[in-house]
Amino acid sequence: MRDSDQQLVDVVLRRADADESLDEETRMLILAALESEDSLRDAIGAERTAERPESSDLSDAMQDREPVGAFIDEISVAGFRGIGNRAVLDLYPAPGLTVVSGRNGSGKSSFSEAFEYAISGSSYRWRNKKNAKVWTRSWRNLHRPVPCELRVRLAVEDQGAVTIGVDWAGDSLDDSSVWVQRRGEKRIPGVESLGWQAAVELYRPILSYDELGGLFEEGPSVLYDALAKLLGLEQIADAENRLGTELRFRKQARTDATAAARNLKSALAGSDDERAALALKQISRSGDLVTVTKLATGSNTGGSDGVLNQLRAIAALTIPPRDVIEARVAAVRSAVAALAEQSDAVVGAVQQRQTILMAALQYHSSHGDGPCPVCGEGQLTGEWHSRIETELASEKERITEYHDRKQRVAAAQRDLITVVNSVGAVRSVADVALETLGAFEQAQKSWRNGPDDAAALATHVEQSHAALEEASAVLKTEAENELGQREDEWAPLATDLMAWVKLEKQARASDPVVKLIDNARTWVKNNAATLRNERLAPIAEKSAHIWGVLRQESNVELGSVTLTGSGTQRRVELEAQVDGAPAGALGVMSQGELHALSLALFLPRAASPASPFRFIVLDDPIQAMDPSKVEGFVRVVEELAQTRQVIVFSHDDRLASAIRQLGVTARVVEVARGSQSSVAVTNAQSPALRFVSDARALAKDPDVPEDVKRRVLPGLCRLAIEAAARDVFYTRQHQAGAARETSEAEWSDARSVPAALALALKGDRDADISGWRSAKPWRSKSMGIAGGGVHRGMFGDPADAVADLQRTVDDVLSA
């Protein structure tokens, strides 16, 4: 994570920790949403015990630490836009100001667009122009379309030279081959290895006239988005959008369940099925889903006395099958037949005889032999006693068998009655007119009302069984039909109930998560404005400083800069004062002032210490400015050039004039276009050559006294040689990948002309350069004037001294 992003996370973390209304889970979601979509989803599914990341507690020094950066060393273009044959724009890969000058149509903007395309893969002019199709169709040069290629050589700290290449073989703008190559290594497809894709949009090191003007012309949200993106504030917007997207996704389950419940309630209310009323009570967020499921599947139909259960009972009615009846009837008849073999009268007489004989035996046992006390004729003897006992025992067995047979008849009759009674009574069903119920009840009544006699009962049951069986079958069919009709009517509702149960389960699982996400999103939305403007404050302060330099004679004083609103209502509020009176900035500014304001707003971010780009490229930034604003612009870029490589493409001569008039150190490169899109680049003026020009002008000026010339020229000689040495030294250092701080420290230690030249030519300020110095006579002369001449003045002809200086500077620059 970038330091700037970490700072924002720290701010959010501290603010969230201070908010006692937030629980830990909501804080986790907020931080995850700031990170990425995947992090948010992971956090939503994470355990409650997941650890929350702590604040990084980066020190200010760590937060302001500059990352490894890059300078532009060279831009070469062939077959692209206004450039035909290969043209090369050599640049000074170190902090400083370079002006690339040329008339409209000279090809200078082709270099700018080529560079922007190589770095970002696009061009603002092509993306945003209303006639973008025309621009994107005319990207290949008309005169020399082949080869069509771009090369941007960068001097990257700690890496050395890195080249970005773009080649086209086809006719489509998108049909390009992009690659990166580090010195001594193979080409790597794409520019992803540089890791600059996000930084290009975040820091916008390339700004054109079109882009500066478009910020205020394309609506308030465009300026808002541009500022938010440049400030890294899109992280907040992304977090809110991620939470919003996830919230909509997670709420869909509840939305679907609610919609299904609404439709289901309407359908249930219109149903006469008893289950509908029961289900209707449960269709809510707190409803019993188990009960609803049972109602839908038929395992719960509302109680035993319900219509459906009564119909099911009738449909399940069973009549003893004929084989069972026949078996029971046969058992009764068999028992009756066995009993009929022994007459009741005979058995009764035998029992009476046994009673008399038992009394006689007892009498004999008591009184002994003698005449029979009943008839008086027979004799009761011992032989008689034995014979009678034997007869009585035999008769007792007959009586026992008789009683057993009688009990078997009763048991068989009871079994038959049990079968008869197994057919339960059928009650009428409320609100259901069963037409065959009466016939069944009549048949059952007849079936039950049999005679008491076992044999007659058997005959009755046997004869009435068929009628009962037929009546039962008809009744069951009618009940089944009624049930089927009701189930057919219920089936769609049952399906809808099960569908709702499924949706409601999903919704109930999502409800707690939805609440968390909604709380997190609400918090981010409510705190976004404060967070944005806290992050914006230091940039706004720098913008105010730049505007103060740029505005020069303008009466408009820039006040606060704030981001307000959200969604389609997002906008930037720019407060200003005109002659001390408050006013909205945009309403009182001229076109030139608006362009200057755009620069004031966006240059601070382009020059951010966190940017990996040590360069700022501005394409035609002053064409709408009045002369005073141009001078202010020069002062601004002069200040930026202390730590940044500032490259300004301009066709406006006022820029070069202002640079000369203000005495600002700058390199001026001229671009000229010949026939057949032939573009030539010439070094019109570098700091070293400018000092040479100043020395030449001084030497030729007849109004300057000779003694003054002899005192001043040595200083100009020294400045020219040191400037040339500085150019060579910094160029070599950055091409070798040396850190800027290291180069600046080494250069600061080179306190004399020989030390500066030794550092430039040999890479060591203590190196011996006497051989180089004595190789050409003009070198010794120039170094002598630049050395001792500064203190004692120069001798000889000033014109000759300037000629020697020109050659010496040329030698140093070409070394």
From TrEMBL:
Residues 72-661 form the RecF/RecN/SMC N-terminal domain. InterPro entries: P-loop_NTPase, RecF/RecN/SMC_N. PANTHER family: ABC TRANSPORTER ABCH.3 (PTHR32114). Belongs to the SMC family. SbcC subfamily. Heterodimer of SbcC and SbcD. This is Nuclease SbcCD subunit C.
